[in-house]
Amino acid sequence: MSALIDRMLRAARLEPGVYEEVEADPSSMGQAVVVVLLSSLAVGIGSLGQAGVGKGLILGTLIALVAWVIWAFLTYIIGTRLLPEERTEADMGQLLRTIGFSAAPGVLRVVGFIPVVGPLVVLVATVWMLVAMVVAVRQALDFTSTWRAVAVCVLGWLVLLGVQLLLIQLVGSPRPA
Questions:
Q1: Sign of dihedral through CA atoms 99, 102, 108, 112?
Q2: Range of weakest confidence among 3-17, 38-52, 120-134
Q3: In this structure, are residues 109 and 122 in contact, taking their beta carbons and an 8 Å threshold?
Q4: Domain parsing of the chain, residue ranges
Q5: For residue 88, which of 79, 96, 98, 101 has the smallest C-alpha distance?
Q6: Residue 177 has pLDDT above 80, yes or no
Q7: Arithmetic mean of pLDDT, 103-122
Q8: Closest C-alpha to 126, from 47, 73, 55, 51
């Protein structure tokens, strides 16, 4: 457990080395899933005040989990097919692991239900996760350009946002994960 917490803290501190570590370690997939589960549960708990247990905790958690897989897939396609650099080489597992750990700051979203402070913390944690994802993608795709990693993440996020908005219309939810 201490290895997981250490990796989560290093990922939240945006240390490129931890992303290289999990990229190269297929056995860290379980840890990446735990990070995403914790971050997803935090979203669900944080939205309890707005949407209750059914839509807040359960649906919020499920949407966040599905979003992780979709975003990793989109990042893989965009980063390896549409915007690769010369030395870009990665597989889906590497992206799932690194992007999974980039969700570490999302654990802070658990306080989302607290009036006034909660939404601010959720916003900060969400931006922090996006920055962590840029670091994760830069490392996993062996980019030399941070701006290319930003472009891959933003393009993937825009597509993901569209998918989430569609799901919200179909199922209903307090807000996108």
A1: negative
A2: 38-52
A3: yes
A4: 2-171
A5: 79
A6: no
A7: 93
A8: 47
